[in-house]
Amino acid sequence: MVATKKPRGAAATTTGNPALEALMKKGLVLKGDDKSLVIHWQSTGIAALDEIIKGIPFNRFTQIYGEWSAGKTLVCQLIAKSFIEAGYSVVYIDTEMSYDETWWKKVGVPTDTDLFFVAQPTSGEQAVDLIADLVGTVGLIIIDSLPGMIPLA
Q1: In whole angstroms, what separates CA 99 from the centre of its chain?
Q2: What per-residue string of b and e applies to 76-109 under the rule 16 or more CB within 10 Å gives b?
Q3: Could you give the angle at the alpha carbon of 152 between the alpha carbons of 147 and 153, nearest 5°?
Q4: pTM listed for this prediction
């Protein structure tokens, strides 16, 4: 939380505060009831998990972490399946070069659909550029995994 000094005179609204109005025109500040702030959710495809976390929020970063071989990729596969079934495109960014189509099919992910894509970037920089290009163009981006994003330098 950041506290700032109170504006003198008028309250911090769109009337009487030119600095705030300018920020609102740029889209940097929104009113608290702005419809763009509403979070939309997609089911994970795992009912018990949805009860706990409500699903996967759109336009947010969700991190799944845990011990080696704990099932993180399996959870991501099930989430990918749920997104594809709902009609969203999914890009799996495999930084560890471990993608195995057989395992994805066993989980039920339709790897032969026009909604599922795999990328295997060769560097961390390439992965970051790819993610930047994909944000807002696909329904779900899975990065497996962050430690695999090794920089060139």
Answers
A1: 20
A2: bbbbbbbbbeeeebbbbbbbeeebeeeebeeeeb
A3: 110
A4: 0.78
Q: How does DSSP assign 59-111, residue by residue?
A: TS------STTSSHHHHHHHHHHHHHHTT--EEEEETTS---HHHHHHHT--T
Q: Are 99 and 118 in contact (CB under 8 A)?
A: yes
What confidence tier does 149 reach under pLDDT thresholds 50, 70, 90? confident
Kindly state the helix (H) or strand (E) to which residue 21 belongs, with its residue range: helix 18-25
State the DSSP code for 133.
Answer: H
Assess whether pLDDT exceeds 50 at residue 61. Answer: yes
CB atoms under 10 Å from CB of 141, counted, come to: 18
